[in-house]
Structure formats: structure tokens, C-alpha cells
Predict the structure of RNA polymerase.
Amino acid sequence: MNFIEESFKKYPIEELELQACTNRLLKQNNVHSLYDLLQKTEDDFMKMSYLYQGKEYSGHRRFFRKKELHLLLTKIEVFKRIMQC
């Protein structure tokens, strides 16, 4: 593991300044650090979003809304651009 991966593992998702409900939802899906977040694929985010709610899941589980998902992905892209500089 290189230095960048180690620093990502130490960077908690709370420091991304997302909404509290988004943080809770990420933690429910075992995303606790920036490293975990960057390991997720588009399909993983789709499963976390409301798009699969009717097909695969039942019960009272909360899912990302479109706006939440867009804001999260935007934050990830901004962070990636900062890290490349």
C-alpha cells in the first residue's frame, strides 16, 4: 500500500462536509473513509440509490436520492482533481 492509499484510509467521510443523512447512508453501506468511497463503482452507487429500491430491496431501507447522489459524485470529482495537482 502506498502513501496516498494510507492517507485516504485515514480521511473520514465526515470531512467531506456532506449532509448528515448522506453520511449515515454511506456508513450503512460500509463506507467509512475516503478510500472506501473511492473503491465504489458506479454499480455500487446505483445499488445505494433509489433506482433498485423496487426490484431488489424491500422494507424500510433509505436510499440516495438523485440530488444526493449527484452532490456526492461531484465532491468525489473535486477531491480527485485536487489530489492530481
Notes: The chain has six helices and no strands. Residues 47 and 57 are 9 Å apart (CA to CA).
